[in-house]
Amino acid sequence: MFVVGDKIVYPMHGAGIIEDVEEKKILGETKEYFVLRVPGGDMKIMIPVHNVEEIGIRSVISEEEIAPLFSMLEGPSSSMPDNWNRRYRENMEKLKTGDIFQVAEVVRNLLRADQIKKLSTGEKKMLTNAKQILISEITLCLGCMPEDAEEQVLSRVLNE
């Protein structure tokens, strides 16, 4: 179980630090919620404590996992379907897993695809969301600023 101060990842939303545990009465039921603060923005998320496992909440990756993550970002792009609709669905499934390596794969592939041919509006939005999720976790893992984490990602993916 997680406690105040833990760095966790909420799939599809990103990484944050548990600031508090609050009781809220919603629809006549009182339940405990983690109050999650996400770096790089003023967003606070309330997560029902009793649903943590179902939602897929996990701890932020360790510093030892950063090197393999960065290597993956530098590696070759995965093959993606030519059909944008199919590609979008496949990428969405990867994001929903909450696995940082799957999220990084989506970011890497879409960033590179955008360099070749501009992405559709839907894929641009997906890239923005996936990048925010990836950057928030790197920020918390390394204890750096979100801008520095984004620089790390872009330089590795685009080989700059």
CATH class wording of the largest domain: Mainly Alpha
Largest sheet: 5 strands, antiparallel
Strand content: 15-25%
Percent of residues in helices comes to 40-55%
Give me the Rg, rounded. 17 Å
Number of helices: 6
Structural class: alpha+beta
Which residues form runs of ≥5 with pLDDT under 50? none
The CATH topology of the largest domain, please? Answer: Methane Monooxygenase Hydroxylase, Chain G, domain 1
CATH superfamily of the largest domain: CarD-like, C-terminal domain
| Strand and helix order | EEEEHEHHHHH
Beta strand count: 5
End-to-end distance? 41 Å
Number of structural domains: 2
CATH architecture of the largest domain: Up-down Bundle
What coarse outline follows from CA principal-axis ratios? globular
Average pLDDT for all residues = 93
With strands numbered from the N-terminus, the spatial order across the biggest sheet is: 4-3-2-1-5
Oligomer: single chain
Which keywords apply here?
globular; five-stranded antiparallel beta sheet; 2 domains; 160 residues; 5 strands; Methane Monooxygenase Hydroxylase, Chain G, domain 1; 6 helices; 49% helix; Thrombin, subunit H; alpha+beta
Can you offer a commentary on this structure?
This protein is of the alpha+beta class and 160 residues long. The chain folds into 2 domains: 7-59, Thrombin, subunit H, CATH 2.40.10; 63-157, Methane Monooxygenase Hydroxylase, Chain G, domain 1, CATH 1.20.58.1290. The chain is 49% helix and 21% strand. It contains 6 helices and 5 strands; from the N terminus they run ββββαβααααα. The chain has helices at residues 52-55, 66-74, 84-97, 100-116, 121-142, 146-157, and strands at residues 7-10, 14-26, 29-37, 44-48, 58-59. The chain has a 5-stranded antiparallel beta sheet with strand order 4-3-2-1-5. α2 (66-74) packs across α6, α3 (84-97) runs antiparallel to α4 (100-116) and α5 (121-142) packs across α6. The radius of gyration is 17 Å and the shape is globular. The termini are far apart. The model has no long low-confidence stretch (mean pLDDT 93).
